[in-house]
Amino acid sequence: MLNSQGIGELSLKEHVLITGGAGFIGRHLARALLGKGHDVRVLDCLLEQVHGPDAQPPAELDGAEVVIGDVRDAEKLEKTLSGIDSVVHLAAEVGVGQSMYAINRYVSVNDLGTASLLEALAKRPARRVVVASSMSIYGEGLYRDTDGKLVEDATRKQAVSLSWDPIDHVGRPLRPVATPEWKRPNLASVYALTKYVQERMTLAVAPAYGMEAVALRLFNVFGPGQALSNPYTGVLAIFASRLANGKPPLVFEDGRQRRDFVHVGDVAEAFALALEHSNANGEAYNIGSGRDRSISEIAEALAIAMDRPSIGPEIIGKARTGDIRHCFADTSKAQRELGFVARQSFTDGLAKLTEWVAGQEVHDRVPEARRELEMRGLVA
């Protein structure tokens, strides 16, 4: 519907399409939108790496219409978009490490998939398209040097004898600070490249056909429903799969790299808000908790939560190609313009994740993923 200024707003009830909606975030978003009274249609190919060989739509999608298909299938897209008012585009291959060798696959699914969706939407425009972008587009986060100057283009060597942290041009240490949306992208992996293309393509093409567009740059999302047997999924799910099998989490570098972990329930709410707020049109937002934690810290906290406190992380002392040192979110823009605040505490989120993991069959595929990266020279 249109308000008095002619700007699109979410009506009391809409028919929302979620691409990739059977995945981790999609299933939580579907529940949130159904709970708000919307009709939900899901398009998902049920990728074996994520869903397993005998995949079925998850129980969280009860009440939603589920269409099994690939976002690159033009005929399937045309039918799936019939009657749709707005779209949340989550369908994507996810994983920095894997993207550095499965290049064709990542570019095809993420970028060609987005192009196919937008081309179909050009024929059947929706009110608004919200696309899942990623914190990976920043590369290294924002830093401050010893003179107090902000540094947007921090770089470092992969193999560092004294420190893994970036330094300035005269060798002085840089201090990481929260990364805002205005920081220039620094695309350090194929995954980052594809997510940036997804974001920019959506924000460029949608308005040309009278549609509104919003991009959410997601930081490290965690919670129940993550693909525990996918060694390229979120780090907490990977650590949980190791601990569930009585093995230590494998931590690259020295474990002191810092990230922002945000619960999937908060992320689902962020997408719902991005569909609703008229002033979000044309904008990109960081979606994180606004808190940063080291990778070793979260590995130790998860081991305690899973009642395996004696299994400490295994510090590898090597880096993966495409990894960055520090990046955590400045969420002030999302709070100001969307009303988004992450409400789930990290401790409570870990407890919910642990409870869910206890009821799952978990296959640890981390060693084979590590061998794959090492064989290709992507770990040094």
**Terminal-residue CA separation:** 54 Å
How many beta-strand segments? 17
Q: Please give the CATH architecture.
A: 3-Layer(aba) Sandwich
What share of the residues does DSSP label as strand, in percent?
A: 15-25%
- Provide the CATH topology: Rossmann fold
What is the residue-averaged pLDDT? 91
CATH class: Alpha Beta
Q: CATH superfamily, please?
A: NAD(P)-binding Rossmann-like Domain
Structure description:
- The protein is an alpha/beta fold.
- The chain is 33% helix and 16% strand.
- The chain has a 7-stranded parallel beta sheet with strand order 3-2-1-4-5-9-14, with helices on both faces.
- Helix 1 (24-35) crosses helix 8, helix 5 packs parallel to helix 6 and helix 7 packs across helix 9.
- 48% of the residues are buried.
- The model is unreliable at 1-9 (pLDDT under 50).
